[in-house]
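User: quick one
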Amino acid sequence: MKRMVFLAAIAALFLTGAGAASAQDQLPAPSPIEKQLAARAEHVTEVTLDKNMLAFAAKFMDKDNDKEGQAARQMIQNLNGVYVREYEFDKEHAYTEDDLEGLRKYFESSEWSPMVKERSKGHAEGTDVFIKLVDGKMQGLFVLDAEEKELSLVLILGPIDVDNLGKLGGNFGIPKDAMKKAEKKVVK
Amino acid sequence: MLLLPAGLAAVMAPAIVLAASGGGGGFDGVVHGIESRYHARATKIPFMGLISALAGVSTHGGVHNLHLAEFENFSGPIDGEELNTIVTQHIGEGWQRIVRETSRSGTDQSLIFVRPEGNHLGMMVVDLDGHDLNVIQISVNPDQLSEQIKEHRSHHRDDPPAED
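Assistant: Done. Structure below.
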């Protein structure tokens, strides 16, 4: 009996460890702020794709014969997750600076570095780009794009090729504008 | 003599399996779940099995397993969270929600679930647009389908321009 308990404890420890290791690349649970934003929004779009689904969904992309198209497909196949939230409001600035700060805080860890911080004067508007670097390679990207009546959150986890960043826009619900902005700023 | 019962069994097997699965999950489960919660009745599309088979043949297996249920004059608006819960509870194992669109008015709701089915991608779409709610299931082979689309495009490119 003691042996069984011992084995169960070892198994539990192993599983917890494995969970913690893979949790780094898992998509996050929605923050309470997202729920509040969803309640205020006129229209909400949520897209959540994990690694398996991305690998499979990449097959649906145009099979471009050019190198760039193939590179974009390859990048998508290797991603660990895509998480998109778009909130459309009927009134201007239905979100507050505190809401945005709360969303940014999620990425204020040692792993993530703020890359772009663009603010509009007098309004809680702007663009934030955070990147996750592992051994000098980009392993994650978070874009928070706040406009008058629209708020977009894009979180991409996994190895990202900066040159093909823009190609993700328009695929899998990733807003084109937000990705174009991010590509411009990151490549700059 | 044994060939006839064996052939019949082969033909009947899918029907038996489908009947046995009943409202246990998948398309039927989702439709029954919506019917019982909202006291609505789905309109059956005649010859859906035949349409599905024809789609499979015409796309060389690119599309198959087509199911469609239509709820006309659906009494909306409905709570998006509740619809999501009902569909998630009834859809069965292996499905993953990838898209959810909701409107505060409750009159527009979309849910897209997918699951890998070998070389195919199974898709289940639940879409409420005003007073029309549709549940669609489809199985798509992306490779086959993109080949078909390419072929179709090249045929059109080869066509001589129409004369006025």
